[in-house]
Amino acid sequence: MTPRVRTPRRGLGAAMAGLAAALVVPLAGGAAGAAGQSVPGAATAVERKTEAAVLAQVADDGRATFWLRLDSTADLRQATARAPRDKAERGRAVYRALTEHAEESQAGLVALLEDAGAEYESFWISNSIRVTAGREVLEALATRPEVVAVEAEDVLPARAAEPPAAPEAAGADSGAGANAVGWNITDIRADDVWNDLGVRGEGVVIASLKDGVDHTHPALAASYRGRSATGAVNHNHNWYDPGRVCPTAGTPCDASYNGMATRVAGVLVGDDGAGNQIGVAPGARWIAAAACDATSCYESSLMAAGQWILAPTDLAGRNPRPDLAPDIVNNSWVAPSRAGWYDSVINAWAAAGIFTTYAAMAWDGACGEVYYPGELANSYTVGSYNASGLWYGSARGDGADIKPDITAPGTGIRSSVPGGGYDTYASTYLAAAHASGTVALMWSAAPELKGDLPTTRRLLGDAARDTGDLTCGGTVDDNPTYGEGRLDAYAAVTAAVAARSTD
User: Signal peptide: which range, if any (predicted)?
Assistant: First the structure.
């Protein structure tokens, strides 16, 4: 199922006109029929299901943009139970289940929207529809039994949960410069994996999801999946910009406010072949989606990007290829309050065997501060430390559901910046990239584990260096400050190889 996108046309269709006339409901006061008679239950249904912000917008402007949440979801357990262990086949099974369910369950709503000439876009990954329409269409939709909620578009601040203070000074933890492996790489022993085990992430693809990447950077160009060995570039199925945040359509850019997107990619895979070994898994390939710009992350763009991750399309949004889905998706965004609408995306990725990493960002270090969607069970959430201990920008969870899952270096991190250069920066987004890169090393060394999320998470936790901080509860082995401890890539990779040999 290719996402349906419909732009408005003039006037209502005949059938829609009749339906709308029967369901016209004043936004204030009771319901009224065509002859001024009360329509029992109509106003109640609209008001009960529709978010106040949507009602206010349509009252003020005559039309609104809103989301229709449907009452059913695809059975991904059944879909994957029949799928073979191969990750590509699992991805296809999940894609089929989601698209077929959305096609069937959205059919009535789509027919109504088509007849009304309304502007809409359907999403199979969440079984929801984004609509821009006036009052009559809104009321007709809200009274449909399969619609459980009508909600406003969520817009997240792109800098959500960034610590309020300036980043730590360059070289704060190591003083590492060009032609030197940074303290962060040696701390997690990724360089030992390269040198002793000969593993650098080959055969694994990591997606970076937030606001793009500078694909021409010397440390990133060669590892971009859209670039061939001869240097030819093909962005189809490798780059996605649903919000049109880049100046040139179809061409990757870094749209972040501080070059964070390119910094994160550098920690994932960066290596210029001339001594700047900044990435944990320099042998892995990367792709990217830009769902945010320098100031905002729109729900619709994040949802579209999440859908693309599961089944990458060409630049025209056609020819979805679930077999080209990445193995890992590294997210560099958080929601300051529980959005809820991304649960379906995270769960679909997990069903398809895609490892999902989020940063445990913090404002004040209070217990129970891990932001959505990092708080979800299917998100692998990473806190950050520096040479002295837990960084103030790392969120602490609580004893009820321990998050973060693990911690990694997050300050004094030398990485790539847009335009071809390098600098040193501090962010828990960078810490999360260390965990994503480590999973790439594990799956490169033990391909049989690719897509096996429970085993991978267990091995990561067991290999971590226990760090006891019981400020927010927990145990030395697993607490809401350090999770299961400090990331140890070498121990995790050797454990993965051992697990492969006994599988």
Answer: 1-34
